[in-house]
Specification:
The protein is of the alpha+beta class. The chain contains 4 helices and 6 strands; from the N terminus they run ααββαββββα. It is 35% helix and 34% strand. Strands 2-1-6-5-4-3 form a 6-stranded mixed β-sheet, sandwiched between helices.
């Protein structure tokens, strides 16, 4: 079995950080489920939807600097990888209908990825992204609190 951290690290730094779709194809199971505020209406359902959502995000919020992994832990059974990272992204394009502000926003996130047979099958995001959340609140609040 591959080291699960070696699967999750490029997913975080290259796919989430820069939108590298080849890394998504190499690390994400075709039926991956993702729980993230980038799709507040429900889980991301499948690799192709994950790629579309991250592509839109990275287009609107390109990386200002490389993703920095702060901590990473693998569960004893090797099935889960917990990764905390910082990412600085510039709000350079429209996202969820919110016009670009050109602000550099710090994303401080913890992802819990479940790895099976060398592929990420589930990724659950917990984040302290207050500036991003406040920026998107006027648009996302009605979607979440209907």
């Amino acid at each position: 079995m591959s080291d699960p951290a070696s699967i999750v690290s490029p997913f975080i730094t290259q796919f989430l950080g820069t939108g590298d779709l080849t890394v998504a194809d190499a690390t994400l199971h075709p039926k991956v489920q993702g729980i993230t505020g980038l799709k507040p209406m429900g889980p991301i359902d499948g690799r192709e939807e994950y790629k579309a959502i991250v592509t839109a995000f990275v287009s609107a919020f390109p990386a200002e600097s490389p993703v920095e992994i702060i901590d990473q832990f693998v569960s004893q059974d090797g099935a889960r990888v917990v990764t905390r990272f910082h990412s600085r992204q510039r709000h350079a394009g429209e996202f969820f209908g919110v016009a670009a502000t050109n602000r550099v926003i710090l994303f401080d996130e913890t992802h819990v990825a479940r790895v099976t047979d060398g592929m990420i099958v589930e990724n659950i995001v917990s984040a302290t992204n207050l500036e991003f959340e406040m920026l998107m609140a006027p648009v996302l609040t009605p979607l979440i609190l209907k």
